[in-house]
UniProtKB/TrEMBL annotation:
It is found in: Nucleus. This is Mediator of RNA polymerase II transcription subunit 30. The keyword Transcription applies. Residues 1-21 are annotated as: Disordered. Component of the Mediator complex, a coactivator involved in the regulated transcription of nearly all RNA polymerase II-dependent genes. Mediator functions as a bridge to convey information from gene-specific regulatory proteins to the basal RNA polymerase II transcription machinery. Mediator is recruited to promoters by direct interactions with regulatory proteins and serves as a scaffold for the assembly of a functional preinitiation complex with RNA polymerase II and the general transcription factors. Belongs to the Mediator complex subunit 30 family. Residues 10-21 have a biased composition (Low complexity). Pfam families: Med30 (PF11315). GO terms for biological process: positive regulation of DNA-templated transcription. One of its GO terms (molecular function) is transcription coregulator activity. It comes from Dipodomys ordii.
Length: 143
């Protein structure tokens, strides 16, 4: 089976779907960017932990003989981790700037207002739950 083309279904493709679809795509992109930002922060923390692990395991050249090859390997790994950490910070900055750009016209919602909305939603869900329970009880009494 094949799916009919978009034109045949009466729906316009992607960017021509109207302002609501464009707004939804923008929100999805912002949400995706936030997820990417979160993953990048996790990568930064992981890399930083690896750097500290490498530093802890490195011996300081304090007159004790050490293997130059081992020291060079560890130094190379450390420099590589620092380079990758720098790249991750630049990536995080780009994500941050893009999120701010996407959310530039939006007013932040105060925390108190969010708590109030959450409370209202909880009350509605409790009312719906009670209504469903009452309907089930009435149906059970009929049978």
């Amino acid at each position: 089976m094949s799916t009919p083309p978009l034109a045949a279904s009466g729906m316009a493709p992607g960017p021509f779907a109207g302002p609501q679809a464009q707004q939804a795509a923008r929100e999805v992109n912002t949400a995706s960017l936030c997820r990417i930002g979160q993953e990048t922060v996790q990568d930064i923390v992981y890399r930083t932990m690896e750097i500290f692990q490498l530093l802890r395991n490195m011996q300081l050249p304090n007159g004790v003989t050490y293997h130059t090859g081992t020291y060079q390997d560890r130094l190379t790994k450390l420099q590589d981790h620092l380079r990758q950490l720098s790249i991750l910070f630049r990536k995080l900055r780009l994500v941050y700037d893009k999120c701010n750009e996407n959310c530039g016209g939006m007013d932040p919602i105060p925390v108190e207002k969010l708590k109030q909305k959450n409370q209202q939603l909880k009350q509605i869900m409790d009312q719906l739950r009670n209504l469903i329970w009452d309907i089930n009880a009435m149906l059970a009494m009929r049978n």
